[in-house]
Amino acid sequence: MSFVIGGRPLASRLLAELPSFVRLVLAEITERVPAYQQLPAEELTGDITRVIEGTLRAFAEVLRTRELPSPDELRFLRESAARRAEEGVPIDVVLTAYHVGIQVVWDVLVPEARPEEVGEVLALNSLAMRYLQVVTPVVSAGYLDERQTMFDDERSARHTLLTGLLDGTRDADGPMVVLAMHVAPHPDELTDGVDAAVAGRRKLRRLRTELERHSREPVLSSLTPAGGLALVPGDDTRLDQVVADVGKAADAALTVAAVAAPPSGVAAAARLAREVLDVAVRSGPGLYRLTDVLLEYQLSRPSAALEPLAAVVAPLSDELVETLEVYLQRGSRRPAATELHVHPNTVDYRLRRVAELTRLDPTRIEHVTLLAAALAARRARSGQPS
Question: Which residues form the PucR C-terminal helix-turn-helix domain (predicted)?
Answer without folding.
Answer: 320-377
